[in-house]
Amino acid sequence: MHPFDPRSYLTIPHVAATRVGKDTHRSPADKALEGWQTGSMKRVNARRYLSLPERRSYRRLEDVVGCKWSAAVLAAIARGVRRPGQLERFIPGISTKVLQERLRKLVDYELITRQAFPGKVLRVEYHLTGTGRKLADILEQLRELDEEHAARTGGGDANAGPDAAPPGAT
Q: Could you give the CA distance from residue 78 to residue 57 in angstroms, rounded to a whole number?
């Protein structure tokens, strides 16, 4: 059998192997897996899946950070925009319904706090919590990284994206 024949890779079950002549060489990942199976390595190093708590954590994170509106709301509050009407004007394209939903979600996740001031007309303000501040800082770093990357790769206008106006439109 030729050393690069695809069938030569199937001779060892559950181990990705390459054949060079008659010798079989295993990748470092396969050696790690073998070490785990024999008990000579910690299980954490060779695990091939996310545990249930890790998956739940990623889903919670995705629910908050994966939504473009949540990121925009956090960034706006971090820049000092506190009231719902101001947030709606500050974030172009967001509807009142979506804004209220995202604010409720961010309060539930304890990333922002809601402060109500009684009076003739109820006045509400939102502020970042400690965790919310950390997340807002991370989101700002990601935004800066995106701008640097776009400038470096010639990816066009750093402001371009799904919300940008089409070329030539003003």
A: 24
